[in-house]
Amino acid sequence: AKRTAQGVQNLSFAEIPHGLDFKHHLPDGYSADLLLRWGDSLDAFAGAFSPDTLDAGEQSRRFGYNNDFLAFMPLDPDAAPGEGNRHHLSNNSNRGLLCVNHEYTQPHLMFSGYTEASSNRGTSHAHIAVEQQACGHSIVEIEHTVEGWQAVLGSPYNRRISLTTEMAIVGDAAGDQRLQTSEDPTGKKVLGTVGNCAGGKTPWGTVLIAEEGFGGAFQGDPDNVADEVEARNHHAFGIEPENRNWGDYDRRFDITVEPNEPNRFGWMVEFDPYDPKSTPRKLTGLGRFEHEGFTVVSKPNAPVVAYGGDDDEHQFVYRFVSKKNYLPRNNAHNRDLLTEGTLYAGQFREGGGGTWLPLIFGRGPLTPQNGFRNQADVLIDCRRAAKLVGATPMDRPEDVETNPVNDCTYVMLTKNKKRKAGQENAANPRARNTTGHVLEIVPPGRNGQRDHTSDTFRWNTFLLGGNPNAEEPAERGAYGQQPGNISPHGWFANPDNVAFDATGNMWIATDGCEDFGFHDGLWAMATEGELRAAPKHFFGCPEGAEICGPEFTPDGKTLFVAVQHPADVDNSTFDNPRHRWPDNDPGLPPRPSVLAIRRDDGGTIGS
Ligand code: FEO
Ligand code: CA
Ligand code: CA
Ligand code: CA
User: Fold this and answer.
1) N or C: which end of the chain has fewer CB within 10 A?
2) How many CB atoms lie under 10 A from the CB of residue 157?
3) Is 78 exposed, middle or buried (0-12, 13-18, 19+ CB in 10 A)?
């Protein structure tokens, strides 16, 4: 049959098979440049990476560990450094800034002498100092030349953001007593960011990065913290005596010394990659939880809308609506749009109706009777607020992103093994959901003109992850409109990140397929037409890795992907790794790395 539906004709690549080995895999006719690896120098003088001599000073000038979110921010060839506005309005696809999250560190794979068990409580002070420089974010100028994609060493834009980078705290919770510490009595200034998972880009040329699993950076027993409210709060984010021992050397990571320091993490962070001296800002208006990311939808002269998720079992999907309107090209105005507005949590009802429920102090149950003193409490204890107003507990919301073609918003729900029988709801229909699913949010209005500021929406189940032929109903996948419209390699589990190409095709990155016997990777599919939600397998990771990013250049001819934690399997260590991707050099450990994928004939990816 002739496939004429939108998005279908241009997914004609030769699908790769499910598999599992020590390599990465692409369809015939595609190649990948190895663009950035953990430890690669960002300046012209640092030389080659040597794991034996790596110290904190060296790591602060080098690409960080466990690359996750990727944003390609174009550089205008005719604009000078500092002309941020001109740069970000460019759609140059051959030169830009690659902005990369470094989610977390793994001492047993980074340093000699650790086992997985010993690396939690026994990491040395020197190694912790390296780790604190290896997480955070990298901004790297990259260019496409006849030799392929490469980093521009020594570019004035190149920058590392780490756990020692000074940041401002802005929005309704800034300065609140629960954000004050002995080092910062103002509650408006914090050092660094951690747990940087996914993120987003704004139309005014800034980048948003999420603070997700920050609890693991803090040690101490919440029950030894005098304040009951903070004890409950710290428990909710997994702060335990068994966590990493950073607090032994850096006291702010010990909650028995600085009980408020964790309240200064768990936010979205916004920064300007075009101004290497700019101070990143933690945006308290977007709430505090285990942020996967936030992505922005904007229409001229209307409020800007941002969608995000809290990646934990039974947590919620959120939407932020700015108070002021987005004014194209007026960046002095737009820069503050995410500092003022209203945060909402999503309610997904039986029958496909949905409502965004506002999280406003004094409204409904968000009152002193329920322990909220002010809006700062609503934002700091956002999870509790969302639960009280009646938001729907979800199966670990990961990336939430809007399709630029059909203007619908898609929610990746990665899995939820903790959902018990009887706890199912219409939008999370499976008890013990091991494979995850994808929801489609349809705001009112026609394609391309939907009203994302509306407090009501419709929603659909877009697909259910898992093998469509699985015996176990809770693991059985459902794709597209007709059974059998995908190949044996078209199914996947555990959707995590998502990106859309210019024709509205969805590209899903997974985290967890090895539980089903094959590598994590990328699957691409149409969102409309006959082959809606019928995936094709495009990329496969080396064993032990999950895949993050993905990110297209504006021309759709390059696709960047981040291969995170390669060789991260049981008993794999620096000294005895499962494999040594991507270098395969006996002198080098496995290294998380970013690949730049191109079609050998220079054509559009996927078509
Ligand atoms: Fe860091 Fe939610 O994945
Ligand atoms: Ca993720
Ligand atoms: Ca994404
Ligand atoms: Ca994940």
Assistant:
1) N
2) 19
3) exposed
CA dihedral (575, 576, 577, 583) in degrees, to 10, reads 60
Check whether the bond before 443 is cis (ω within 30° of 0): no
pTM listed for this prediction: 0.97
Q: Is residue 24 part of a domain?
A: no
Domain that holds residue 151: 30-213+266-599
Bridge partners (DSSP) of residue 160 are 138
Long-range (24+ apart) CB contacts under 8 A made by 221-224 are 221/256, 222/255, 224/256
Q: Which two tokens stand for residue 442?
A: 């349809």
What does 526-585 look like in DSSP terms, one character per residue? BSSSTTBT--EEEEEPPTT-EEEEEEE-TTSSEEEEEEESTT-STT--SSS-S--TTT--
Centroid of ligand 1 to alpha carbon of 549 (angstroms): 12
Cα(415)–Cα(426) distance, rounded to whole angstroms?
A: 15
The answer to whether 529 and 6 have CB atoms below 8 angstroms apart is yes
Residues at CB less than 6 angstroms from ligand 1:
103, 197, 212, 292, 311, 398, 496
Cα–Cα distance list, 92 to 154, 392, 455, 557 (Å): 21, 41, 37, 12
Q: What is the mean pLDDT of each run of 10 residues along the chain (607 residues)?
A: 45 96 98 98 90 95 98 93 84 97 98 95 97 98 97 96 98 98 98 98 97 98 93 97 96 97 98 96 98 97 98 98 95 96 99 98 98 98 98 98 97 98 97 97 91 98 96 91 84 98 97 98 95 96 98 98 98 98 97 98 96
What is the distance between the alpha carbons of residues 250 and 392, in angstroms, rounded to a whole number? 38
Closest to 396 (Cα-Cα) out of 483, 327, 491, 465: 465
Of ligand 1's listed atoms, the one at least distance from the Cα of 212 is 1
Domain presence at residue 255: no
Distance CA 51, CA 465 (A): 39
Check if the beta carbon of residue 11 is closer than 8 Å to that of residue 578: no
- The answer as to whether 229 is a domain residue is no
Q: How far apart are the first and last CA of the chain?
A: 18
- Distance, in Å, from the CA atom of 122 to the CA atom of 177, rounded to the nearest integer, reads 33
**236 within a domain of the structure (yes/no):** no
How far is the centre of ligand 4, averaged over its atoms, from the C-alpha of 582 (Å)? 22
Total number of domains in the chain: 1
Distance (Å) from CA 440 to ligand 3 centroid? 15
Q: How many Å apart are CA 565 and CA 553, to the nearest integer?
A: 24
Q: In ligand 1, which atom is closest to the CA atom of 414?
A: 2
Q: How far is the CA of 39 from the centre of ligand 3 (A)?
A: 25
* pLDDT tens digits along 304-354: 999 999 999 999 999 999 999 999 989 999 999 999 999 999 999 999 999
Distance of CA 441 to the CA centre of its chain: 19
CA distance 265 to 282: 9
Closest residue to atom 1 of ligand 1, CA basis: 197
